[in-house]
Amino acid sequence: MEVLYSSTRNDGAKVTASQAILKGLADDGGLFVPDHIPSLECSLRELTGKSYQEIAYEVMRLFFTDFTKDELKNCIDRAYDSKFDTPIIAPFAEAEGTYYLELFHGATIAFKDMALSILPHLMITAAKKNQVQNEIVILTATSGDTGKAALAGFADVEGTKIIVFYPKDGVSPIQEKQMVTQKGDNTFVIGIRGNFDDAQTGVKKLFNDQELVKKMAEEGLQFSSANSINIGRLVPQVVYYVYAYAKLLEEGKISDGGKINVVVPTGNFGNILAAFYAKNMGVPIGKLICASNENKVLYDFFVTGTYDRNREFMLTSSPSMDILISSNLERLIYRIAGNDAKVNAELMHSLSTTGSYEITQQMKEQLADFYGNYADEKETSQRIKEMYENTGYILDTHTAVASAVYKKYVQETGDDLTTVIASTASPFKFTRNVMNAIDEKYNAMSDFELVDELSKIGNVAVPNAIEEIRTAPILHDTVCDKDEMKTVVERLLGIDS
């Protein structure tokens, strides 16, 4: 059955999957959502024994219905290949009776690789399907991980340019070095004096700047996005939750039809929304546990039904979650509003004008499958130390937030269902915070000394993504104010005259 896509803010014209992927963001500023969430067409038992690539095809073909079998399989095979350091793609680590789904074995050692390895191939295929002659300019904001993963995915891809904005002082040293050393004649990296929300808001404004869009079109250029606002980024994330369930079933960790809980550390909400989509496809997921850091706007939302970004922005040791505008939450709001674009648009207008919105009691009741909580900096650090001392397993700062929140959930509810925690980044991306949590003596070491020490105490090899930036030259050093983003983009694209 064909799946078409429409904007969360307009019930009007529907577009195909390939058109939605190309556009990234709807013209009205809304996000593309499927007209229905398709059900899996084979049983989860039938998926046991299948490779990650095979399961990816079974999931994606249901959403991307205007792609042919060959087109989709070609995208999948190109994405999930030797860029990953394990043929399993997303292995499990069991610690303290919980299953950590390691989503950091790709080229940039963060979960964003799971989607951004395939998005360039989906986009180029989509461009050909729609006879697009323009050069595609990927414009994206990052809180640390998306930027590098997108840069790596799109570097030197013919017919594309990629421009990434990141908060200059809001990412880890390793995250920053990964980005500013990125090779590729079509890659541009800009630090902004501001936080991630400033970068994300600035990018959305550029997408909706009709003067700029017209100017670009005259030069044979058009915008698209690599952020999780792009449906071509979100759907590949659904895959690993289906895969996780099939693997647990295959290994006899759960019985056929047995429920699991899923815990996701998130600021943007896209990664847990993907789990929600998997649940709606037929994966027996019980609770969707949304873990926040000290920027706990999502926790407050689940507790009160009010989303309020009018608060102090906190810089934490889990910077990829330092977000107060959770863009992907809009897709969930649209759904619990009964797929009513008008209601959703009103709420999003309230968010943009007042910084907050409140959902109805009826809408709140539809969030019963979600549980929200948060871990502060001290709790996050303690969880890293505790896990290492108890098991030898080393968590990154984001996964530690999830693990700490999961402990709170179990203590609060007594729910002992088999649980999968999305492990979203390698600890090697956040060595200083991770090692300091284990023992403060490590603070005296340099960043790369810490890398080697982490390798030693964790008994794991230093990932290639880290090795290759040890001595890599800085290739991107542009920094701008948040209100200069348009000027910078015009200059980089050569349309500033």
Could you describe the 3D structure shown?
It is built from 22 helices and 16 strands. By secondary structure, the protein is of the alpha/beta class. It has a domain of 246 residues: Rossmann fold, CATH 3.40.50. The strands form 4 sheets. A 6-stranded mixed beta sheet has the order 4-5-15-10-11-14, with helices on both faces. A 5-stranded parallel beta sheet has the order 9-6-7-8-16, sandwiched between helices. β6, α7 and β7 form a beta-alpha-beta unit. The longest helix has 20 residues. It starts with a strand and ends with a helix. The model has no long low-confidence stretch (mean pLDDT 95).
Spatial strand arrangement across the major sheet: 4-5-15-10-11-14
CATH architecture of the domain at 92-107 and 232-461: 3-Layer(aba) Sandwich
Q: What is the end-to-end distance?
A: 48 Å
Number of strands: 16
Beta-sheet strand percentage? 15-25%
Helical content, roughly?
Answer: 40-55%
Number of separate helices: 22
Q: Average pLDDT value?
A: 95
- Main β-sheet, in a few words? 6 strands, mixed
- Globally, the shape reads globular
Structural class: alpha/beta
Which fold name corresponds to the CATH topology of the domain at 92-107 and 232-461? Rossmann fold
Low-confidence stretches: none
CATH class of the domain at 92-107 and 232-461: Alpha Beta
